[in-house]
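Exam revision sheet. Question 4 asks you to relate a sequence to its structure. Input first:
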Amino acid sequence: MKTKHMDVQGNAEKYINREFCGMVVSNKDADPIRDEFFEKLLQYQFVSSGGKYRNNIGQPNGVPDKLEFMRKYRFSFCFENSSHPGYYTEKLIEGFAAKTVPIYWGNPHIEEIFNPNAFINLSDCESIDEMIEKVKAVDLKNIYPYYQSQHLMKNIAIYGKTNNASWKNSW
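Answer key, C-alpha cells:
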C-alpha cells in the first residue's frame, strides 16, 4: 500500500528536475525589497520572470497562464507589493497551487494562517543576504519533498472546533 509520504518521496526526482525559480509580476509599484531580492537571487541562479514587469523570457505581455508557467519550477517567487500585518493576496496560494515551494515576503503574521514548514518565509529576515541564504539552504539540501509533504494551513479554530489542517500540497 502506498502512503502519501511515499508518493511525495517517489516524485522527488521529478520535482528536483524542475527549473529553479519562476515569478509572474505585473505591478512595478512595489516595495523595493522585491527588486533587490530578485537581483540578488539572479546572482545565485536564473529566475524566470513571466509577468509584464521584469520579463526575461521573451513574452513582454506576460505568460497567458500563470499556474501553467509556475509548474515548471521548484520555487515560486511570491512577494507581496508591500508588507502589512494581516495583508496577503493570492501570491502564496498560487505558489502552493503550482506545487512549488513558495518563497514568500509580505505579511509578517502569515505563519498564523499558513504552516511555516510548507513555504520559505522571508518576512522575518533582517537582510537580503539572509533571505538568499535561506533559499540556498533549501535548494542545496534538495529538501523540496519535505516542504511538499506539509499541510498548508495551520490548525485554526473555527466556531470552537479545530481545523485539522487536512489540505496538503499533494502531488
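Marking note for examiners. The chain is about 30% helix and 15% strand.
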